Structure formats: C-alpha cells, structure tokens
Amino acid sequence: MRKPADPNARMALRLSGIVVVMVALSFAAVPFYNWFCRVTGYAGTTSVAEQESDVVLDRTVTVRFDANVERDMPWEFRPVERQMELKIGETGLAFYEAYNPTDRPIAGTASYNVSPDAAGYYFSKIQCFCFTEQVLQPGERMQMPVTFFVDPEMVNDRDAKNVRHITLSYTFHVTDLPEAQAALDAPAATKTSIN
User: Fold this and answer.
1) pTM score
2) What is the longest distance spanned by two Cα atoms in the chain?
3) What is 44-193's CATH topology?
4) For 146-162, what is each residue's pLDDT tens digit?
C-alpha cells in the first residue's frame, strides 16, 4: 500500500511551480508590453508606416520637437527646427542634429515617445534615425531625418480628435560597440566633420 505524499513536499512542489510560472511571465512581460504599446499607442508609442497617407485633411496640427540625452551620453543633441505646422495626413520632414564633442567614436540609439499619449497611435513614422543605431566619430556632427505624418483617423477618435499640438520627443542613449564597428560611418544620415 502506498503512503500519502508528504504535505511539505507537495507544498514545495506547488511553490516551485508558481515560481517557474512567474519567472516565465516576467520574461514575456517586456515583449508583450512593447507589442501592446505599438498596437494601441499607449504611453505615446508611435506607429511605423511604409508609405505616406493618401488622405490629407484641411485641419492642421502643430508638431513640436524635443531632444534629450541620457546622463552618460556626451553628445550634444537638438532639433534643427523646434516646431512645424502641417495638415493632418500631410507628410512632414524634420531633422535632428547630433554632435560628438569627444575624442573617441560613440554609438547611440534613440528612444522616443509622443505626447499627448492619445496621439501616439496616430503619429506614423515612415523613416527615422531612431530605427537604427547611430555612430559619431570624434568631432563629427550629423543631421538625422525623421519623415512622418499624423493619421487622418485621429479626428474620429473621441480621445484624440481635439489634439492640436503634438510633441515628438527623443532621448539618445549610449550603445556599446566593438572598437572596429565604432570606427565605421553611420550610412543613414548627412554628416560633416568638424576640425
């Protein structure tokens, strides 16, 4: 005849199972959150478009541009133009400028968001320097483009239809690269060296 299992062993097995499930969920949380933000525009996450909008409305919106660097990033980073007014659905082209004042190559990636949050889902980027890593050589200055439009569907959203001002904000973060890679030029932008 079989003895009943030790209650402590059963409890330990159950707790181990809970720990395994929680660890698995913690690893899935970041990709799920990123997907959720892209789909819903939550937290000002923008959309990516493959082409321009085929509808342009008479209503305009003012897009403001903001630039920041994380604490350890030595670059100087700023928008070339502080704001622009464009029709909803019209394609806009804005430039940001980065400068590496140090004596070594530095790589960076840009994180971004849009405010107000309700406009994030409707702010569509066609091309952006934030899609790839950027490398600046010592003393190098680079102008980086972002091509975008505000989706006309925004006027049908009860939470976003009254938005008249949108702020597109970027923050550059240092990215570690092997020295050989850091010496390569970043191909996606217009660059000039400062001597």
Assistant:
1) 0.67
2) 88
3) Ctag/Cox11 (Pfam 04442) (2.60.370)
4) 999 999 999 999 999 99
